[in-house]
Amino acid sequence: MCDRQSRIYLTQVMHQRLFPVNYRFSYPVFSLLIDLNRIDEECRSLSLLSLDRFNLLSFNRKDHGSRDGSCLKNWATQLLASQNIDIGNGSIKLLCFPRILGYAFNPISIWYCYHSDGSLKALICEVNNTFKEHHFYLIHNQGDKLSWPVNATKKKQFHVSPLISMNGEYHFSFHKPGKRIGVVIREYQNDRLMLTASQAGYSYPLIDSRLLYALVRTPLMTFKVVLAIHWQALKIWLRGAKFFPKPKPPKEQISI
To answer: In this predicted structure, what is the pLDDT of residue 1?
Structure first.
């Protein structure tokens, strides 16, 4: 029997804008926390989730990292090493949406990078927009371990929404994934809180019955995520939010 390290999280995503339009929405989603050391073995033991091939649910390595289908752990380890962050033989776990019927869109995926002694050494926030662009924010402590909860601040470098300017700063807060998971991102514009986005929920074993339950609870989730992004943006714009043209992508794909 496969000794599973990966998990499924049934969660709620919430967005709260405070100005210039006060607007809130939330919806249920589910995420996988994939242990990149064991993903091949774990997917082979599941009927509903496949690795790099079509299924009702699938995890495709081309959706993340270098986007070339190569080993994701090697990609992340090389990125960390470029910043003198050593995880030894530690594990890397990736929190993301799976593909559903071959389609996925991840507004954000989070890489939890652990040293072989169990300590957290880094987080990689992989952000995607609807223009098929992506960017990485690396959160670390100059090679030393990070303490839970992890709080970090990063200057906004990557265009996500045409209704928010690029003059922003992100305040990240991550709680340790366990029985529960919690991620909060606050965006400040000119030192004023403009947006709070969060994902919170509970952990379950990554088994077929839980995957089926998640699909019934949130059918066609990844399609609905993209529809929700455009639908909510339209409603916010109709309420008077300013439109910002899309800038050129940043020269550097990784913010360190």
So the answer is: 43
> What does the block give as tokens for 223?
């399609």
Sign of CA dihedral 142, 144, 146, 147: negative
Span between the terminal Cα atoms of the chain, in Å: 40
Residue 189 included in any domain: yes
Residue 85 lies in a domain: yes
Short-list 2, 25, 11, 8, CA closest to 210: 8
CA distance 200 to 127: 18
- In the sheet that holds 192-205, the strands lie side by side as 150-155, 168-174, 180-189, 192-205, 7-17, 23-35, 92-96, 108-114, 120-128, 134-140, 254-255
User: How confident is the model over 95-104, as pLDDT tens digits?
Assistant: 999 999 999 9
Euclidean distance between CA atoms 134 and 249, whole angstroms? 9
**Dihedral sign from CA coordinates of 111, 116, 117, 122:** negative
Domain count within the chain: 1
Say if CB 34 and CB 59 are below 8 A apart: yes
Confidence of residue 2 (pLDDT cuts 50, 70, 90): low
Tokens 């996988």 — which residue?
32
User: Residue 70 corresponds to which tokens in the numbers above?
Assistant: 């190569």
Q: How far is 28 from 235, CA to CA, in rounded Å? A: 19
Helix-strand-coil split of the chain, %, nearest 5? 20, 40, 40
